[in-house]
Amino acid sequence: MKTQKPYYITTEKISVGYDGKPLIEEVEIALRKGEILTLLGPNGAGKSTILKSIARQLSLIAGTVRLDGEDMKSLTGAELSKKMAVVMTKRLRAELMTCEDVVATGRYPYTGRFGVLRAEDHAAVQNAMELVQVAEIGDSLFDRISDGQRQRVMLARAICQEPEILILDEPTSYL
Question: Which pTM does this prediction carry?
Answer without folding.
Answer: 0.88
